[in-house]
Amino acid sequence: MPQFAILIYADESLHAVDAAEADLEEHDQHANDLSVSGTMSLAFALTPRADAVSIRRDSTDAEPFVKADQFVAGFYVIEAPDLDAAVAIARLNPATRTRTGGVEVRPVHSGGITANDD
Amino acid sequence: MVTEPATEVQTAIALASAAETARITATLIRVTGDWSLAEDCVQDAFARALVDWPVRGIPKNSGAWLTTVAKNRAIDRMRSAASEKRAVRELATLTKLEGLPEGPGANPAVDDDRLRLIYTCCHPALPLEARVALTLRTVAGLTTGEIARAFLVSEATMSKRLVRARAKIRNAGIPYRVPPPELISERTAGILSVLYLMFNEGYSATGDSALIREPLVQEAMRLARLLIALLDDSPQQTEALGLLALMLFHHARRETRTDAAGDLVTLEEQDRGSWDEASIAEANALLAAAEQLGISRRSRPGSYCVQAAIAACHMVAPDAGSTDFAKVAALYELLGQIAPSPVIELNRAVAVAMSQGPEAGLALIDRLERERSLDGYYLLPAAKADLLRRLGRKTEAHRGYRRARELAPSEVERRYLSKRLAETAPASQTDQTTSPRTGAEEKK
Fold first, then answer.
1. N or C: which end of chain A has fewer CB within 10 A?
2. ipTM summary value
3. A86: which chain B residues are within 8 Å (Cβ-Cβ)?
């Protein structure tokens, strides 16, 4: 079945290293729903913007790569029969109910977790 | 050997193209899953007809003839692809292709195929301009060159746009199907907006480009008819009827929109005797059918039906003065509830001014001005100036027209506003001030 990456855009990531569990509840519940349903094959929550490092040819900056009000706060990969189904699943993400945030659906070309010898 | 007159063959091919392209292409796409292959094979079939029919005669069932040729072409191409790649998938497709029925016949699956094609061409994951182009290419069967000319771009540009759109359908997992019930209303609205955009692209063209862009108007109306037929018995049909009625109302007064010099003629001043009565009658019948459907389904009217109802108020009035403006104002209010927009509110203000007097309309326009959401929109100062003129406040009206002319998007509108400026100019002086920008535009 085709895979789709869903990038979560938000003003800030709730997933600070020392975040309280209560603040993460809504997102974690959604992630849990997706894994239980067997739709999600991979998921990562990323830390706040202050932790981001952007690297260009002549510079290394302590900020997200794109200067915008929203940045990628996390991403996950789902399996869905087609784009309509993927969009319907993506729409369930709590970020789509915020005023400024949302998600972006990107069809996956290839990839996965690489083999690890440890 | 039969020799058919060239014009008869051309007519037959044009008719077959209009009637059969979508059906044959849609079926081939469903079976092969390959958009370019399907379009190429259908085009090849018409190319064969162009050579074959003058010599052997026009086949009795041209649809069946074209289907067979296109299908055989697809089989040939799939066969050579299969032998090159030794691919199982191509072989499976071949079996399905060989089992296809020949002609149109009574096959409900064919209607499903065409609907599937329209929904896919108008999928919201495609850029809007690609949706329009793909619908014209694949559903309407226009050539890439014809579409490029209608959109005033080069054939290479249009070809790239189409290639990218087909690639996205394949790569992004855009499904080839009629959407499920929970999406059907939203997606049908999407198709209607593609058709209305297509219509307006052609309809809003004036001067030399009007003739070149006329096919867009014709195709949009033809596709709306096709959609209405395909959506028979569906609740989605109501808005499609409303859209076609709206297009026909516009189309009925196409000849009266500009005068011999190419200047804009407002609705009030248009020669109503030159409006196309057949189009108006058909539009009225469509609108009545839509309203009847809406009543029987107890559904709230959609925005195209309301817009068509507004157009109907203007089109059925024997002269501008006898237009039922109270009804127009009420309909604009309804439209604003369906899709709130300051432009709709401006139109309502004008209708209110016509039915209750300029002061009432002016109050609504003043409120819009304070909200500032129409800043820079030339029709706001123009509408206000019209009301001020009717109240005899000439100096203020003159100022409004001048502001409107500064903001007007095209030469046709600027010329119209210049006339109004002259009419409201103080008796002692005529309007000599031409803004530098307007001057520059006029020299072009």
1. C
2. 0.75
3. 173
